């Protein structure tokens, strides 16, 4: 294409009859450019050894420079040599890259603690399907002519969640999303279509996708304060609702915040709305259950997420508690709301009420497979194990004199941010300000936690040994009762 | 969870020390509900034989009832029996479902013609990676602490496309999306952030995701007429631009429309903008190259898509011409535009400029693998083959007296819609009104086309044999020169 469009390949065109056609007479269907190889933009980007690249990939500092396209970590695509089919050099190169990559994945999966992904799965039985381009284009309930889909699995999974969240088959609509963010984007969009002039309320500890949605959709958005636990502060919510009584309310309720794993009190949110004079036809609640949406039903005392309450939609991630090799999620809403979204069919030129068009058809099969294997009872056991192990971790951190908090309904243990970035990176901890967290998922065993605890306690003794630096006070983040700093630990 | 939250499992909680905590004293970390199995909402949904379900799955009619949650095709998730670990019944059931499903996939893949997916791939070497939860959370150029990612592959793929579209490494930003729709959603969002009061212009044959974006983003949208070929009609575009001279223009340019595979003339679009007095700082062009974005660079005379022209973004699908088991795409834009999008970091609480948060880390590896294997030269050969085969199909359709059109730069053959829905379904043809199309991808061989042609010609002779019905006139859809109806075929 670049600078070499003049040479034309020899004509090998198929039969051309005398019929008039819109193609110009001189068109040669095989007129592809002869030298398609674009010039290399940067010549010094020659292929170096993989390990050297991996070495480069380790960031020297954690500083993030916005708007700077960092190429620290890049495996360049290389053009095969002309005689490659004979030498097999390219295949050998790729095989070696993949083998090394696999090794790093094994290692990183072993030390992973900070993100809520259940890495404990075995989908060997499904590897036979990897060779198909499975695509659930558009609406799961509207047949497409594209035959290579997995809608029958998708609808089975949706029905399972509909039953969990207590909504009849003919009253819900939903689909399997690409991730928790898509669920939030969809839920909030449905809310906005139901209440075009509605104000979006979300606690400030909501996932950033909620605020991204507000900006994308050009919605007015009001941030609500949180309690120390991370839950929405309904006193502040009330003040803000009363200040905007003239407009309908669209509320994002967190079933597990990203950082602290806090579960907003759904019943109190509804009660607050009612107390402020919002009747059920003047608010829309989206429940962001990305993290704990699948755990809550199995935890006693948890505010029950159910469509018997006046909620509009629920989303949950599939790759988190369920475990799945690729990100995915489940989104369920009421059929009546989707009819509002789909009403402008002529304009959209489609009845498709999903955010995406082409949709990964493998994810529903992974979910279907796991739900069948584990069943409700299997998930119950795993929830039990996670809560137990989370308490184990929190208790041992506190015993070691480290500030730590665990919300009642959560398996997210929040604690003092380790001082050494190397340690944070090794254990892949998610950090924010002075705090870090471990999300105890089914693949996080007591053995793994012991390894982590031992290493943390040993390393930490060196960070603060000379007394020149003190561990930070976390009273603002975890409350006085959980803070182990010099001032509060008495 | 349902109606049985009273019973508490026996306490097996871990060590609890005396530290004060925000948990209530009576909290039992293992207090999971004893009977988590929700009641079945519909009892008659007992598990039937898979084949019977598959039978049900075949729609009796093509009628689509909007807002009706059709469960014609559903593989219910079933709860494992208590003694399942002994009997293995559940595993046996799942294995049989999957084996049969695989068989239908093989069959459907064989007869697939209507959708632009290259089903010709072999990713056996990558099956070793299926066991990892690979997630490229957020921005590909900003390191995350989550270690199980494939950013190094992703950046390699992006660099390859940046080189193809002639933009320097330090001047572009991009990411691997979940599908072509996400690319359009992103490109149009960037355009809107650059020109908050801009008007979106798109030809009426643009993909529906473009109009979905306009509605999502609350943008003013002007539909532009098309020529018979399906290309944007720049005369109409000019009239509409002149009517809205006071507002910046955001233009969606199709590099291959969905139905006719028409390629908008990028140069003429730019020229029209200039003629109407729009300087380069008053318009933003997004190129929707979902279908042909990867083919165009290899076709002589095609309007060249390059960042040396005043365009803002380009997107392409990864599962179409490249071929990939799951939907994916590539989105490239200018770094300067992303800085606008990311400017409101405090509000978004994230530097993430992607639409999604969690992102499938397997897709970049599939793309990287194919780009390495095929290289620019491999793609050139495949483009050549597709164009040749598309001409073969079009010519043979016309020879058989069937209305058919093939755009000069396209491998999408548009023709008379087959009268029999069974035939349409078997070959998975995409239809619109009186026309259907076949998109000739690298996996569509002459043999496959011959099978298709023979069957079509044979079946068609029965549809119109008694003369009571005539084949439809397609002059409006494909032009007089391509119409084979009784009136125009003389």
Structure report:
The structure is a homodimer of 490-residue chains. With 490 residues, chain A is an alpha/beta fold. Chain A folds into 3 domains: 2-110, no CATH class; 151-373, Aspartate Aminotransferase, domain 2, CATH 3.40.640; 375-482, Aspartate Aminotransferase, domain 1 (Alpha-Beta Complex), CATH 3.90.1150. The first copy, chain A, is built from 15 helices and 11 strands. In chain A, the strands form 2 sheets. Chain A has a 7-stranded mixed sheet with strand order 1-7-6-5-4-2-3, sandwiched between helices. In chain A, strands 8-9-11-10 form a 4-stranded antiparallel sheet, with helices on one face. In chain A, strand 2 (199-203), helix 6 and strand 3 (221-224) form a beta-alpha-beta unit. In chain A, helix 4 crosses helix 12 and helix 7 (234-242) runs parallel beside helix 8. The longest helix of chain A has 38 residues, at 362-399. The first copy, chain A, is globular and about 65 Å long. The first copy, chain A, starts with 49 loop residues before the first helix and ends in a 12-residue tail after the last helix. In chain A, 52% of the residues are buried. Mean pLDDT of chain A is 83; it is low at 1-27 and 40-69. At the A-B interface, helix 1, helix 3, helix 4, helix 5 and helix 6 of A face helix 1, helix 3, helix 4, helix 5 and helix 6 of B. Chains A, B: Its cofactor is pyridoxal 5'-phosphate. Chains A, B: It comes from Rubroshorea leprosula. Chains A, B: It catalyses: L-serine + H(+) = ethanolamine + CO2. Chains A, B: Pfam families: Pyridoxal_deC. Chains A, B: The modification N6-(pyridoxal phosphate)lysine is found at residue 320.
């Amino acid at each position: 294409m670049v600078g070499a469009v003049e040479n034309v390949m020899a004509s090998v065109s198929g039969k051309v009859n005398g019929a008039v056609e819109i193609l110009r007479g001189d068109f040669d269907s095989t007129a592809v450019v002869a030298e398609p190889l674009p010039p290399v933009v940067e010549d010094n980007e020659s292929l170096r050894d993989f390990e050297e690249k991996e070495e480069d990939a380790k960031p020297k500092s954690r500083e993030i420079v916005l708007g700077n396209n960092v190429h620290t970590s890049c495996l360049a695509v290389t053009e095969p040599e002309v005689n490659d089919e004979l030498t097999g050099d390219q295949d050998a190169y790729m095989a070696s890259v993949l083998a090394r990559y696999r090794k790093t994945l094994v290692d990183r999966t072993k030390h992973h603690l900070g993100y809520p992904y259940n890495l404990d799965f075995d989908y060997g039985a499904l590897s036979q399907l990897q060779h198909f381009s499975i695509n659930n284009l558009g609406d799961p309930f509207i047949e497409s002519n594209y035959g290579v889909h997995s809608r029958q699995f998708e609808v089975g999974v949706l029905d399972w969640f509909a039953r969990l969240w207590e909504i009849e088959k003919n009253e819900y609509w939903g689909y399997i999303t690409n991730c928790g963010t898509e669920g939030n984007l969809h839920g909030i969009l449905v809310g906005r279509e139901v209440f075009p002039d509605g104000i979006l309320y979300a606690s400030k500890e909501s996932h950033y996708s909620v605020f991204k949605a507000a900006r994308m959709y050009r919605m007015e958005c009001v941030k609500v304060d949180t309690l120390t636990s991370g839950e929405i502060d309904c006193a502040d919510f009330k003040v803000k609702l009363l200040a905007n009584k003239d407009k309908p309310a669209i509320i994002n309720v967190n079933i597990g915040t990203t950082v602290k794993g806090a579960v907003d009190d759904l019943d109190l949110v509804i009660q607050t709305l009612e107390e402020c004079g919002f009747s059920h036809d003047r608010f829309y609640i989206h429940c962001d259950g990305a993290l704990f949406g699948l755990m809550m039903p199995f935890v006693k005392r948890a505010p029950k997420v159910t469509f018997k309450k006046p909620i509009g939609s629920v989303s949950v991630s599939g790759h988190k508690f369920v475990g799945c090799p690729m990100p995915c999620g489940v989104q369920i809403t009421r059929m009546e709301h989707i009819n509002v979204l789909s009403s402008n069919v002529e304009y959209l030129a489609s009845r498709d009420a999903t955010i995406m068009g082409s949709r990964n058809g493998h994810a529903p099969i992974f979910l279907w497979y796991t739900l069948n294997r584990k069943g409700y009872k299997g998930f119950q056991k795993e929830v039990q194990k996670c809560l137990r192990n989370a308490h184990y971790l929190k208790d041992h951190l506190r015993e070691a004199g480290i500030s730590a908090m665990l919300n009642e309904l959560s398996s997210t243990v929040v604690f003092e941010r380790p001082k050494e970035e190397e340690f944070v990176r090794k254990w892949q901890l998610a950090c924010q300000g002075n705090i870090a967290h471990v999300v105890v998922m089914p693949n996080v065993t007591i053995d793994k936690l012991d390894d982590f605890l031992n290493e943390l306690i040993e390393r930490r003794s060196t960070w603060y040994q000379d007394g020149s630096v003190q561990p930070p006070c976390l009273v603002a983040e975890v409350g006085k009762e959980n803070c182990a700093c010099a001032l509060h630990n008495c």
